[in-house]
Design brief:
The chain is of the alpha/beta class. 36% of the residues lie in helices and 13% in strands.
Length: 565
């Protein structure tokens, strides 16, 4: 009888009775507190169910609302009964009605007997706490909290703001250094007696009655005053999500619980019949002794929290649509965007598809329709070529396209005449590879037979749009892989940048390009640009084209294009 258990119960009393009987059956006394808000009939049923066990006692009932003093008061009274009625108890283990023993009781007894003067309680100074929510770490000890955080949230927040505005601060009693930690502990008789029999307890209790969530600070603070050997950790396996809510263990967590090597776990789903049947069976004590190590499964829980909060990369749905910049990757796979290439080269999409083995689309965001590869009107995932449907949510259109074609790289054309709503999204997407030949949009205008006044107006508009796109790509926050060339730079030596692009799209091929796609006819293009200047429009994105003659000097080779990253 060296270990005694305190159980704080408020629901699923039938399961609490099973666990209490298990512990009591292994010669461990149990003191049970039942929340005062539980109906009398349910409470009387629990008392009657355990009436045959002489080492099970019940303490006076307190209303235990989360974050209030009632939980501490219930723990104090139950601990007092434990120390008074069972003098052989050396360690007192605080648990809840939803806790479940995972290892033979004999192993826990042996483990604690080897550490007779060690107190197991998470106890961390407020400066080192990283799990508090709402910024109330130090302030929970210096402000007043007369309103319930759960039932009167607006009044709670308003009163906190008022105290901050007025500069109100409560005096912390002399000798008290606030500490925080898990509510669940295992303390020695000496330590627990020193806390409960403290001659200044009335003053200390009066102060902690007005501390927010005192069950996470009362024993955690006072243990530092009286204990010489504190292991700042909680023995029960207890995991919390990103909102500070405890994880609930179900039947399919059986193997995970076994791997933890912990003695007790919380919270267990009341209907987890398999867990209760497995761990409450008669143990033989033949399991290999091991140090409790909840860190073994921390990685699994971390992955679960990430999947819950961020979902899978590039997958969006009504039930899990993350806040902006909370995405676990904006898209599901790498993709390539080409601006100006289909203007400069004839049949560029066909050539790129053969060179890289990828799916190459036309202008997916063209004003008239979605130009899917091969002229398809419906694509993977029943995606329509309707421009109206696409423009209803362009981000979803792109993310759905990449998600529906996982395993096949997607490439598509883009330009200043297309819908520009996606430029910020693509620039911030680490999966995007964006290659831009600036000013190439002028080539179709050069070959058109339209009125020159119309050409000048359209050229000015397209240049303004592309300049804005380039400014976005030069931003410091850009995550996409970006390469830009002026039209003049590119036509001087097209093979080198084309080789670089192909190598990045399909690195496994590792073969040199032997031919490039056919260039559009640029004879007279320099004079065309000069005509635009003569009409009052200044073309600046194309680079230097001579007003007379043909193409820029192609004999000199320039270095690789700069990266915008």
């Amino acid at each position: 009888m060296t270990v005694g258990f305190i159980m704080l119960c408020h629901t699923a009393l039938d399961r609490a009775a099973q666990v209490a009987r298990h512990w009591a059956g292994h010669d461990c006394p149990v003191v049970i507190h039942v929340d005062k808000r539980v109906k009398r009939k349910a409470y009387d049923g629990l008392v009657q169910a355990l009436a045959d066990l002489p080492n099970v006692s019940f303490s006076g009932r307190h209303a235990c609302e989360w974050g209030t003093w009632g939980i501490v008061a219930a723990t104090q009274e139950a601990a007092t009964i434990m120390l008074r009625q069972f003098p052989q108890v050396r360690h007192v283990y605080l648990s809840s009605g939803s806790c479940l023993p995972l290892r033979p009781v004999a192993e826990l007894i042996r483990y604690l007997d080897e550490r007779p003067r060690t107190d197991f309680i998470e106890s961390v100074t407020t400066e080192d706490v990283g799990w508090t929510i709402g910024g109330l770490d130090v302030e929970r000890f210096t402000l007043r909290f007369p309103f319930s955080w759960r039932k009167q949230r607006r009044l709670f927040d308003s009163y906190v703001r008022l105290q901050r505005r007025l500069g109100f601060k409560r005096r912390i009693p002399a000798g008290i250094v606030p500490h925080l930690g898990s509510q669940w502990w295992c303390l020695t008789r000496q330590t627990l007696s020193a806390i409960l029999d403290n001659p200044e307890r009335n003053e200390i209790d009066s102060y902690f009655r007005r501390v927010w969530i005192p069950d996470e600070s009362y024993f955690q603070t006072l243990v530092r005053q009286v204990s010489a050997n504190v292991e700042s950790r909680s023995l029960p396996l207890s995991k919390f999500d990103f909102q500070g809510k405890p994880h609930i263990f179900y039947d399919d967590h059986l193997q995970i619980l076994r791997r933890s090597d912990c003695f007790v776990a919380r919270k267990i789903w009341p209907h987890a019949d398999r867990l209760y049947a497995t761990f409450l069976s008669d143990d033989t004590g033949n399991q290999a002794a091991a140090e409790p190590n909840p860190g073994k499964i921390d990685r699994l829980f971390a992955r679960a929290v990430e999947r819950r909060t961020k979902g899978r990369a590039g997958l969006y749905m009504q039930s899990r649509h993350p806040n902006e910049n909370w995405e676990n990757g904006r898209t599901a796979a790498p993709y390539s965007v080409f601006e100006g290439f289909s203007d400069l080269f004839e049949n560029f999409e066909t050539w790129l598809g053969k060179a890289t083995g990828t799916r190459v689309h036309g202008h997916l965001f063209a004003p008239d329709r979605v130009h899917f590869a091969g002229g398809d009107t419906v694509y993977n995932g029943a995606m329509s070529d309707s421009a109206a449907m696409r423009d209803y949510n362009p981000k979803s259109f792109l993310t759905n396209l990449i998600w529906n074609t996982r395993g096949e790289r997607q490439c598509f054309q883009f330009g200043p005449a297309d819908n520009q709503d996606l430029i910020w999204f693509m620039a911030g997407d680490s999966n995007a590879q964006i290659s831009v030949i600036s000013g190439a949009w002028a080539i179709p205008l050069f070959h058109s037979n339209r009125n020159f006044g119309e050409i000048r107006r359209e050229a000015a508009q397209l240049q303004k749009i592309e300049a804005e796109f380039l400014n976005v790509l030069r931003a410091s926050w850009v995550k996409a892989r970006v390469r830009t060339w002026t039209l003049a730079e590119f036509v001087e030596n097209p093979m080198e940048p084309l080789q670089t692009i192909v190598d990045e799209i399909s690195p496994r091929s590792l073969r040199r390009l032997t031919e490039a796609p056919r260039l559009a006819d640029l004879t007279g293009f320099g004079q065309f640009l000069q005509n635009l200047r003569n009409q009052g429009m200044q073309p600046v994105l194309m680079g230097d084209f001579p007003a007379t003659g043909g193409l820029p000097n192609t004999t000199s080779r320039r270095g690789r294009p700069y990266l915008v990253k």
